[in-house]
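Suppose a colleague, Dr. K., hands you the sequence of a protein chain of 104 amino acids and asks what its three-dimensional shape might be. Before reaching for any lab equipment, you can write down a predicted structure in token form. Begin with the sequence itself:
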Amino acid sequence: VYKRQVLEGDLIHLRRADGRNLDYWLMVNPGGKEKGALVVFNPTKNDVSKTIAVPLYYSGLSDVAHVFTEEGVLGEFALDRQYRVDLEVRVPAEGWQVYFFKQP
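The predicted structure, expressed as tokens, is then:
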């Protein structure tokens, strides 16, 4: 139920969908428990791993982000000077993955 707040937050398109590579967008809610949710979709027929620079400026996070998925905790990531974290995402063929960001 608490993840609903971030899913109803502001939407930031990070990469235009082209059907040839990962498509991803970020939802943010600085006032919620989860400050951000990165949704990544893989339209290809192959599993894809890629590092994405996730801009968290509008999430309200400023120093460190606690990152997790439905499967478990990925760890704490330090934000760089432009309020970004480099996150390696793994998305199955024709599937999707959601990464949540919150204050540690």
